[in-house]
Write a structure and sequence with these properties.
Structural class: mainly alpha
Order of helices and strands: HHHHHHHHHHHHHHHHHHHHHHHHHHHH
Shape: elongated
Oligomer: single chain
């Protein structure tokens, strides 16, 4: 029930009576409750009372203090406390060392944790258990040091320390992150062979990892395997599947999974709704997306900035300006302040529709709200100006962008080069564009090779040929051929 405050109050009342004499058990309970309440300082005060009464304290009394110190990142004090416990002859146990090892790993001091594990074997007083190995293996996997994690796993088994589900889950997640699927599946089979039943964390880790790698069919098979094993999928299981289908443009499958999830009695959270909303908006299904928002609110899930940004992007792309304006006002009413991504969606859509004057007004609104435009904002505006043959405005925006310390990216430079390839540009404008284009390449460290690669990657071979011709014209071809030969 965890009524720690009540227990502390009761103990205080008992200790205030004249005839009450505290014992080791009472003090240990008070120390544990105080540390659970994050009052480690008062826990040490209780320790002082115990020492004053001459009580011989052991690991049961002192381990909560260690846990409290580690939780508050007081690792040096925790290590000193263990040393004092040993020097004064207080009883330590394997959990004492496990607490310190876990604290060190959470603080990113994995090497120090390994040293303590080695010391345990060195002095021979306590044999490390899985609670001593698991934090280190988990930490090594998070550091992507999977080779050392597997070595420690083998060492663990060779010393007759039995791995548990947590051990296998950490290693499976680490191997998934490395994309080593042969080892992942082999480890999953080993886990089952050793009589350790995969749990919801195991299956969620596998499903998420497979989805991230685009292996949706295998992920779906593991979902079936999960259900057959009697393990109920949870919101994280469905979020992994739904998000991956949304990112790959398979919004129909995502919506199907979403419906299946609700039918199974699993309540979607903000992550689920945002993934489906984004997919619907990108698929041009803004009406369905708006209906989903109402369903979301009805279910008690409050829309956040990601929700509104997806909707706004969808409304702008489909030219529903009235709806977009209404949504911006709604964001204000809901106290969800728009960010740069919000305004970039509006700027991008306006520029693509040729409404550059309105796009510049949005830029002014951004600065009035102390939001700094980024390279995406300026790339959209420069594209809009180039597309409507406003060459002077395009170069002005480029200069403004560089003046603010925002380096042009490959998108900005391709916009400038595309403009140079167009007919109807005056000689003065062409000269100004060439200057900005070459200056942009210098300051952003983008080479002609990168520009050629980008055009080829997007199937714009005609543009790639024009870049090559420009290189020949400007005398850059020799450097290109030299780099090609390296």
């Amino acid at each position: 029930m965890k009524h720690y405050s009540t227990v502390v109050s009761m103990c205080k009342q008992l200790m205030s009576t004249a005839h009450f004499q505290p014992d080791v058990c009472t003090i240990s309970i008070i120390i544990n409750c105080l540390c659970r309440l994050n009052r480690v300082d008062l826990g040490f005060s209780a320790l002082g009372i115990a020492l004053k009464h001459g009580f011989q304290l052991g690991a049961y009394s002192l381990n909560p203090l260690l846990h409290g110190l580690c939780k508050n990142s007081c690792l040096a004090e925790a290590v000193k406390l263990v040393q004092k416990m040993e020097d004064k002859g207080y009883t330590c146990d394997v959990f004492t060392y496990g607490i310190v090892i876990n604290g060190l790993c959470k603080a990113g001091k994995t090497i120090n944790a390994i040293k303590i594990l080695e010391q345990m074997y060195g002095n021979g007083r306590f044999k490390p258990n899985s609670d001593c190995y698991n934090p280190i293996i988990d930490s090594l996997c998070k550091e992507r040091n999977i080779k050392q994690a597997l070595t420690l796993f083998e060492d663990m088994i060779s010393r007759s320390v039995v791995p548990d589900a947590y051990t296998y889950n950490s290693l499976i997640r680490g191997l998934c992150n490395m994309g080593d699927w042969d080892k992942v599946l082999a480890l999953f089979e080993t886990m089952k062979d050793q009589g350790i039943a995969p749990d919801v964390v195991t299956f969620n880790t596998l499903i998420y990892g497979l989805c991230q790698s685009g292996k949706w069919e295998k992920a779906q098979r593991f979902l079936s395997c999960m259900v057959e094993s009697g393990i109920s999928p949870d919101v994280y299981t469905y979020n992994a599947l739904i998000s991956s289908h949304c990112k790959s443009g398979q919004w129909e499958k995502a919506v199907q999974l979403f419906k299946s999830m609700i039918e199974c009695g699993i309540l979607p959270n903000i992550v689920t709704f945002n993934a489906v909303l984004d997919a619907l908006c990108k698929g041009g299904k803004t009406t369905e997306a708006l209906n989903l928002v109402e369903q979301m609110i009805h279910r008690g899930v409050k829309p956040d900035l990601v929700t509104y940004n997806s909707l706004l992007h969808g409304l702008c792309l489909s030219g529903q300006w009235r709806g977009a304006t209404s949504l911006l006002n709604r964001m204000k009413d809901e106290e969800v302040p728009p960010d740069v991504v919000t305004f970039n969606s509006v700027v991008d859509a306006l520029c693509k529709k040729g409404r550059t004057k309105d796009a510049l007004t949005v830029l002014q609104v951004m600065t009035q709200r102390d939001l700094n435009p980024d390279h995406i904002t300026y790339s959209c505006l420069i594209y809009g100006m180039c597309n409507t043959s406003q060459w002077g405005e395009a170069t002005r925006l480029f200069d403004e962008m560089v003046g603010l310390g925002i380096l042009p990216n490959i998108l900005t430079l391709t916009d400038l080069f595309d403009a140079l390839s167009k007919e109807g540009m005056t000689e003065e404008a062409r000269k100004a564009f060439e200057e900005r284009f070459q200056y942009g390449m210098e300051v952003s460290k983008i080479s002609f090779n990168m520009l050629l690669h980008d055009y080829c990657l997007h199937g714009k071979i005609d543009k790639a040929e024009k870049v090559f011709s420009f290189m020949v014209l400007k005398g850059h071809i020799y450097g290109f051929l030299y780099n090609l030969g390296q």
